[in-house]
């Protein structure tokens, strides 16, 4: 029994020493990154992934004509554009252009409310704020480059997701047969 007790004490000492080593290592590592030049160099070396939509970069995507953009989108959207945009979708795009123009250089444009859940997001809409009707309220959607080619309705959920009760409540709701 005595040997077991000594073994446990030695194990405790080893754990303490290991913890001390990791603390010292963390302090040393933290001290390495605190120099201003190295931190700036590390920040500058970090590169962000450029957004591409089907192989076309964002700045080129914004410059594309409607015909060139139609060739990039999926078949359902291509069919929709080839049949021509009607009055309402064109009116939405016109309002979005106007709200972007009215906004300052570094501020978000005013929200444009719409019921057009079936409107396909085109590059011209990027940066706009759209209020998409979900049947009850208008959900604010800020159009980002990744949304290109999707429908507005995909970003405004029409139902409230079910939050089923958790395990703690299961005892109360469990069926108990009467005898």
TrEMBL record:
Alphabetized InterPro entries for the sequence: Ribosomal_uS19 (IPR002222), Ribosomal_uS19_euk/arc (IPR005713), Ribosomal_uS19_SF (IPR023575)
Xref: Pfam families: Ribosomal_S19
GO cellular component: cytosolic small ribosomal subunit
Record flagged with keyword Manganese: no
GO molecular function: structural constituent of ribosome
Alphabetized Gene3D superfamilies for the sequence: 30s Ribosomal Protein S19, Chain A (3.30.860.10)
Compositionally skewed regions (Basic residues) per UniProt: 17-30
Region: Disordered, residue numbers: 17-39
GO terms (BP aspect): ribosomal small subunit assembly; translation
Keywords linked to the UniProt accession: Ribonucleoprotein, Ribosomal protein
Ribosomal protein among keywords: yes
HAMAP family: Ribosomal_uS19
Family: Belongs to the universal ribosomal protein uS19 family.
NCBIfam families in the cross-refs: PRK04038.1, uS19_arch
Protein name: 40S ribosomal protein S15
